[in-house]
Write a structure and sequence with these properties.
Largest sheet: none
Strand content: under 5%
Oligomer: single chain
Length: 316
C-alpha cells in the first residue's frame, strides 16, 4: 500500500474523488474509441490536452519566476538583515511580496493543477481501465469485477516495451522507464529552476532519484503520463528560451522591468556580482533625457585651442 492508497483510506475511499476519476475516464475512453488510439497513446494524448489547457497558468508561472529573479537581490538583503529573527524575517518577506505584487507560490500552480489528473489516472489504472482493457478478466459478470486484477501482457494492455500498462513494470521495462523518468525529470527541473544557490540546485538534482523509490510502485501507465509531461516541459522551455531568451538578470534601481514577452535573460552569477553593473551601463544614456551621459556638468565644455597657421615665408 502506498501513500495514494493511504490518502484514499483517510478520506473514505475514492468516493470523494470519484467524479474526478469519472471525468478523466470519459475523456480517455473517448480518445481511445473515437480517435482510435491505443491505450498508451491515449494516455499521451490526454497528457498533451491537460498541458495545453494549463498554458495560461504556465505563462503566469513564467511571469512570477521573472519577477522573483528581478527581486532576488532585495530579498537577500532582507534575509541578511533579519537573519537573527526568523519570525520578523517572514513578516518582512510577506510584506515585501505584497508591496511588489509577487506570489511566491505562483510557480507551483501548473504542478498543483496536474495533481488531480495524476490521482485520477492512478485509480483508473487500478480499476476502470482494467475493466476496459481486459473485459474478459475484469468485465461485468467476471469474479474480478469488484476488485480488478492486472491485465497481463496482451495486445491491448501492452505499449512498446511495456507489457502491461495496468501493472507495475518489472525487469528491462522497469529499467528503461526509470532511466526515462529520471532523465526527463532532471532535465525539466534544471530548465525550470532559476535559483543560483548551489544547495538548492543540488536538492533539485537529487529529487528525481529520491522519487524513484515511489514511482516504481505505480502502474506503468502512470509513468507514461509522468514522462510525457516532463518531455512537454522540456520542449516548452527550449522554445521559450529560443524565442524569448533566458531569465533577465536583476534590474538596476529605478529601472522598469520588461513584460513577460519582451525578453528573458539569465539570472546567473556574473563577475560583477548581481549583474547590476550591466543594466546600469545600458540604462544611463537612454533614461537621462538627453544624449549626454549622467554626471556630466551642465556648463558647456571649453573650446579647444586654435591651431596657429603656418607661414609660407612668402612676402606680400
Amino acid at each position: 500500500m502506498n501513500w495514494l492508497n493511504l490518502f484514499a483510506d483517510a478520506h473514505g475511499g475514492t468516493a470523494v474523488i470519484q467524479p474526478l476519476i469519472d471525468f478523466f475516464h470519459a475523456i480517455l475512453v473517448f480518445i481511445h474509441d473515437s480517435i482510435g488510439f491505443g491505450w498508451g497513446f491515449s494516455i499521451i494524448f490526454l497528457t498533451i490536452l491537460v498541458r495545453a489547457a494549463l498554458l495560461p497558468l504556465t505563462f503566469k508561472q513564467f511571469h512570477s519566476m521573472q519577477r522573483m529573479a528581478h527581486l532576488q537581490p532585495e530579498m537577500k538583503k532582507l534575509q541578511e538583515k533579519f537573519k537573527g529573527d526568523k519570525e520578523r524575517m517572514n513578516q518582512e518577506m510577506m510584506k515585501f511580496y505584497r508591496e511588489n505584487k509577487v506570489n511566491p507560490f505562483a510557480s507551483c500552480l501548473p504542478m498543483l493543477a496536474q495533481f488531480p489528473v495524476f490521482i485520477a489516472l492512478y485509480y483508473m489504472l487500478q480499476s476502470d481501465l482494467r475493466r476496459d482493457i481486459c473485459p474478459e478478466k475484469n468485465g461485468p459478470g467476471s469474479p474480478n469485477f469488484d476488485s480488478p486484477i492486472p491485465c497481463g501482457s496482451t495486445g491491448e494492455s501492452s505499449f512498446f516495451f511495456i507489457p502491461d500498462l495496468t501493472d507495475k513494470a518489472t525487469g528491462t521495462a522497469l529499467v528503461i522507464l526509470i532511466v526515462l523518468y529520471v532523465g526527463s525529470q532532471l532535465f525539466s527541473t534544471l530548465l525550470m529552476s532559476t535559483t543560483q544557490d548551489k544547495t538548492q540546485r543540488y536538492i533539485f538534482m537529487a529529487l528525481p532519484f529520491i522519487f524513484v523509490t515511489f514511482v516504481i510502485r505505480f502502474p506503468a501507465g502512470l509513468l507514461v503520463y509522468w514522462i510525457t509531461t516532463n518531455l512537454w516541459t522540456i520542449v516548452q522551455q527550449v522554445i521559450i528560451k529560443k524565442r524569448l531568451g533566458p531569465l533577465r538578470p536583476p534590474l538596476a534601481e529605478g529601472e522598469k522591468p520588461p513584460s513577460l514577452f519582451d525578453s528573458f535573460r539569465t539570472a546567473t552569477a556574473t563577475g560583477g556580482g548581481d549583474g547590476k553593473s550591466v543594466s546600469t551601463k545600458v540604462k544611463g544614456p537612454v533614461n537621462s533625457g538627453s544624449n549626454e551621459p549622467k554626471g556630466r556638468p551642465a556648463s558647456p565644455p571649453p573650446a579647444p585651442p586654435k591651431k596657429k597657421k603656418k607661414r609660407s615665408g612668402r612676402k606680400r
